[in-house]
Amino acid sequence: MRLADSMLMLAILAAAGVATAALAASAAAPPDKTAAALPATSPGAPSAKPAAAPPAKPSAKSAAKQAAKQAAPAVPAVPSDLIVIPPETGGPTLRDYLLKECAKCFDDRRKAVEALQTPEQVMARSKAMREAFLAAIGTLPERTPLNARTLATLDRPNFRIEKVIYESRPGHHVTANLYVPKSGKPPFPGVLVPCGHSANGKAMEAYQTMSMLLATYGFVSLCYDPIGQGERIQTFAPDGKPAASGTTEHTLVDIGARLVGRCCAQYRIWDGFRSIDYLISRPEVDSNRIGCTGNSGGGTMTSYLMALDERISAAAPSCYLTTLERLFATIGPQDGEQNIPGQVARGLDHPDYILAHAPDPVIILAATKDFFDIGGTWETMREAKRLYTILGHGERVDICEAPGPHGFARTQRTASLRWMRRWLLGIDDAPVEPALPVSTDAELRVTQTGHVVPELKGRTAWDLNLDEARRLVPERAAFWRGRPRAECLAEVRRLAGVRPGLARPVITSTGTLRREGYTIEKLVLQRPDEPPVPALFFLPEPRVGPLPAVLYVDSRGKAADAGRGGPIETLVRSGRAVLSIDCRGFGDTSPVTPKGYWNKEYTIAFLGFHLDRPLLGQRVEDTLTALGVLASRPEVDGGKLSIVGAEAGGVIALHAAAIDERLREVATERSIESWMDVVATPLSKEQLQHIVPGALARYDLPDLVRSIAPRPVSVRSPVDPTGKPKAAPM
């Protein structure tokens, strides 16, 4: 990026009363400068020794909150006269819009499934869904040596528990417990037991009990820790405790993974594949008789693995399967690995996990009062049963609904055991769960400290993201060197989901305010079947001839900088017209949705990812729409248009200016500078709104700046991916 001699930026700075502090890199700088400045290892990887609690220091959470308060200016209260769409109007929200777009895809999928009438058609869809799933999660790595070790063994009356560790990828360790029957004749059937989102991973009582129950009845079971749980915590606070919950880790990993064309689900699925590799490597296990059962997040993984790994013969996912339509209408998208890229757009829904496993047996384990909607569960059951019946194997799909809440209760566990006995042992009876000796977390611990990353200097999922991001640097540079600029920017549009030929909006004026020296017109810009874009049009008075104009995009809202004496007023008093807009989800259209995983927009961001329409790209479309409106105003000189992007608006502004050359000058404030920084920052904040899946194979934000040249780009007070002020380059 380059800091230009910019009248636009000088006007903004005059309002703020401060001097610019950051970023003066030449537009011709080599494209790999950003990567070269990155640390050798991910800053999220803890040190080799467990962190000790420092004396007389605030907690990590309180320190983070304090830093965030210092980093970002508070959002000013919006004067009522600057509200364009009052919240009490109760109009459609961004979430409503995205759900409506999803509904179109659900209808298309429903018609496609209802058209299946023959076994050949059913199996063709089964194959297509498996291939679509694999394509969505990104290229899988080559299998590498597991380097498996058994570190200790616990003796129990009917089985032994081996404490094992193996590497799903080089240096990426998986901690697990292997439950081996003491009686019976090997080789035994093997069952993988993926964990749900328990903080203690494989040591949670329900997962222990399922594993012990299987071993008691003649199965070798393997229960392993997911990343971010149990012994596989990847980030630590100064007091040595986890810096984030497991689900938050999964979502933060997903952010960097999507940028490099992967997703958290890929890491979780690969751990499952390699866990099956380990399971069948054991001489006690019959590799032709493999099952999989897990609850909640383990139900998610069971669903994924049964769809993708043909070695699994029988599957019993618990308290997960519903339909995406019911999921989105109720609790909404969940953490990172439960959102497959482009899933809705690809027509891949929960019933397709079962179909991809066809014609092998699946039992859906459910709970009447589960937060995963039971109505959707029965819709999935009905669809799967119909398709398996067409295949001549209707008996291979079943359901067990327990009258209780979400969980791996005794009813689900014994139903899973019965299913495994029926299909892997050829015994169909009603097994009973006996009293079983639950172990403590410490007893099941594989490592000495309980933390595999610092103890073995292992590699985190963030390290894997960063490795791939670095690998893509020369590929990205070659892409820009070897193609015309227009072709490169067409790829930017495609990846970001910025569609060509946007319809002209209907423009509605809802009133005009007068301030000393200028007017403010309140507008609503509405493209057909798209969310409204509220706007404020500031026009100096008196004016002489067409004026230079500024498009202002601030993620805090169109009125955040519109106070008396503020940046927008300063621009207007310098003789510019200003159109300040609320891109969808900003200001008047801010979503009222659950906040979580360190991302207040995670619900709408993941809905966008499901549709292959990143939130960023949608907002760039809103910005380009507003640019067209601004350029068409008779008061405006269409040859003198500029854009200011504040906070999240900075990334939007760079995309808009790269795509549309009518923007002759660009200024960003308090915005991130590079997606490479995001990948290198495990504990990022509010980054889902910025993500373009697969972008780093083709472009980073500095590439956009170079593509804008020779038009000037100015940057003030850039921030790091946690929202803190970024240090000026040395």
Describe the 3D structure.
The chain has 730 residues and is of the alpha/beta class. It folds into 2 domains: 7-28 and 485-716, Rossmann fold (3-Layer(aba) Sandwich); 122-468, Alpha/Beta hydrolase fold, catalytic domain (Rossmann fold, 3-Layer(aba) Sandwich). The protein has 23 helices and 17 strands. It has helices at 7-16, 33-36, 60-71, 94-114, 119-137, 205-216, 246-259, 264-281, 297-308, 324-329, 350-357, 374-390, 410-425, 441-444, 452-456, 461-481, 485-496, 567-573, 602-610, 615-632, 649-659, 675-679, 701-708; strands at residues 149-155, 159-169, 172-181, 188-194, 220-224, 285-295, 312-318, 362-367, 397-402, 506-515, 518-526, 533-540, 547-554, 577-581, 636-646, 663-669, 713-716. It has a 9-stranded mixed beta sheet, with helices on both faces. Strands 10-11-12-14-13-15-16-17 form an 8-stranded mixed beta sheet, with helices on both faces. Helix 4 (94-114) packs parallel to helix 19 (602-610) and helix 9 packs across helix 11 (350-357). The model is unreliable at 1-5 and 17-72 (pLDDT under 50).
